[in-house]
Amino acid sequence: MTATDHPDGAPGGGTVLAARPEDPADDGDRRTAAPGRSGRDGHGPPAGDDRERPATEPVTEEFPEDALAGRPPTGAGGVFIHAPGGNINTGALHGDQRVVNDSAASTPGSLPEETYAEPVTAREIREALHGFTRPVWFDSALRALDDRVLFLVGRQGSGRRTAALNLLHDHRGPSFDLRVLDGDTDLASWRPVDKAHGYLVPGLAPGRMTPDQCLGRSTLATLRRRLTEADACMVVVLPDQPHLVRPFTRQLDVKPIRCQPPPTREVFTSVLAAEIPDEAERRHLVERAGPTLVEELLDADLTPADVTELVGVLVNAGEDGPDPDDVLDRLSFLAHDEVPELLAAVREQPDALAFLLSVCVFEGEDHRVIREEADRLLLVADGRLHHALHPWAEPPPVDRQPTEPEANPAFVLRRSLDDLLRLTGAHCGEPEIRQAPGYGYTVEPVRFVRTGQGAALLHHLWRQYSGIALLLTTWLSDVPDRSDLAVPVGNVMGRAVIWGSGRHALEHVRELARSDRDGHRRIAAHALAMAAESPLRRSEITHFLRHWSWGGGWRLRTTAALTCGTSFGAHRPDLAVRLLGTCYRGREGDERAVAAAVVWSLDTIFAGGAEEVVITHLTEWRTEGARARAKAADLLPCLLLRHSWFWNQLRTGGDFRDAVIDLVHLALVADRTFDATADQLLEWCRAASRDQHVHSAVVTLLTALSHRLDRGVLRLFRRIDRDETVDASVRRIAHRALQSWRTAEPATPRRPAAPGGEHDPRS
């Protein structure tokens, strides 16, 4: 029996009516009865009766309605104390006291649990309904809700609350009478008061995260019966943590529904249609935002909340369209707030911390790549990711052993992928097919739930923890030489330049630019391009690139050339082509690496829509000295692969038709570029038989070349004349030109002397 139990065994606790004494109590052993002790009927205890009156007696017998409502009893002159489930001593105690509080069912003197059910505002319900996209599991969840209680499992950001509100609204057919229960509510004793309500428990309190603390089979059946009697239903949201969800499945024999959000594009289409019903206006809105901004964001697997934010930005952007940087800032504002929480979760777990940093850098790559890089980071860190040193960092004395065993970092079952993903706020997406030269392969990309989470976390670490800079640069400087990893690593290195300050902010990038490894130079190129996105760093990056292209060795010139093929060159193609012209110095020896970088970047700029800029510079080089003409001849063949632009200029008589003919003639004359140029032109001649537009372009080019019968043109015509796969009409042009040359008198002006000497095509 507890200290406040009734003599008849009834449990104690509840509401107590105590007297307010008129005068201070005597200091002696005698206690006088308080005047308010007798109650409303005026009958007090018999004279000389020193027994303590049961604490709950005045309430349960005399003031039940007032006490249950939480008000002082009417007409009482004493002090009213309301303490549900509490233990109150109203007199002096002698000796020991044992108090036992349990979570038994509510007593008649306790407040009903409906006090904690707060109504969901109509505005929140309307926002949840607005543009809601029904996922594939929604109909089955509605059917499961017929059992009155539904357990919904989902990760943070999956739209659990929105989906739960839609379930309750639709199941009640439709209803706005929805309530939210506190996560600490004792569902075993709780009962609904109002009829036809939907109840949402958005998350259980830590003390009620298991069935033993929350519900049992019998109490779940009781809860369902009470909800059925009230014509109500309830959705309980559980976190996506198997060790918490599994007991509900096994002990309660229930099957929680997993809240998997719909595909990002479906959510975007639905929300945008709800905002703008007119389809033409929606299409104009997306086009106004830019050709790639929306597509890139939708490919990033946004959460439903991020999609709603994106639609809001597009709708309110005005006629000029949204600024891409502002859009990304709006979408990543939650990511910055969650950085401290993520770090706190992994601070004392080095393997999870390494995995988190790996996801930050390689987000979107296959989960195997991320695990491999996380393991390599642990090795590079050499203990710097461990929050505490083992008490026996050095071998202990022979006669003394460690107080506890040390964790084995090489344990193969150290931590599962799912555990790491949940701990770091990431998820593994659906398998994707990606292309490599000559084949495709499957990846399961890992991405953060929050958009921009990786950049926000790295920014926080770089600014707040000085030791992280050296660790990250050491780790990232030794990634495998793979082109698909150079971009994410370079982007992180470039962001580090933006986050840094002082004259040495670029030092870690310069070290990579001077490296003998091609992978390092590619990382440096992407880092410089990312850093140049910042207006504060743009002039500094441009200065270094100009300096390296003029006076740097082959390594620095290779890095400068590669940088021109990144977003740096795409945003400023004129400057990039001029820098490429400065970097190029032939193909001999170490210059082959520079030439390969120049060709790759020039082709990238040309394919990116700057064809006229590239051809203009090549034409200028053709009219300059011998070295510049050789440079123009060397760089043209790689561009002929992008044949569509050349065909269009030749066929339509575009502004650059004559420039194209002159450059092709220049490349045919030089022996080192003849084969590559002739091979491309032969492919054009073969395609002429299949496409009338190509045929017109090829005829225009060959007719113009037939009036320049020097050594290079004659060699090309001879190959065309002997190739039976070439279009017949095209072959006739070459054949007639050869016949005209063969029958012409040596002194005729129509037969110009070849720069490389006389050439007889009959030989």
What would your notes on this structure say?
- It contains 36 helices and 12 strands.
- A hairpin with a 2-residue loop joins strand 10 (about 430-435) and strand 11 (about 440-445).
- The protein folds into 6 domains: about 1-110, no CATH class; about 115-260, Rossmann fold; about 265-330; about 340-385 and about 415-455; about 475-605; about 610-763.
- By secondary structure, it is α/β, with parallel strands linked by helices.
Give the helix level as a range of percent: 40-55%
- The end-to-end span amounts to 121 Å
What is the number of strand segments? 12
Class by SSE composition: alpha/beta
- Spatial order of strands in the largest sheet: 3-5-6-7-4-8
Region (Disordered): 1-83, 741-763
Biased composition (Low complexity): 743-756
Biased composition (Basic and acidic residues): 20-55
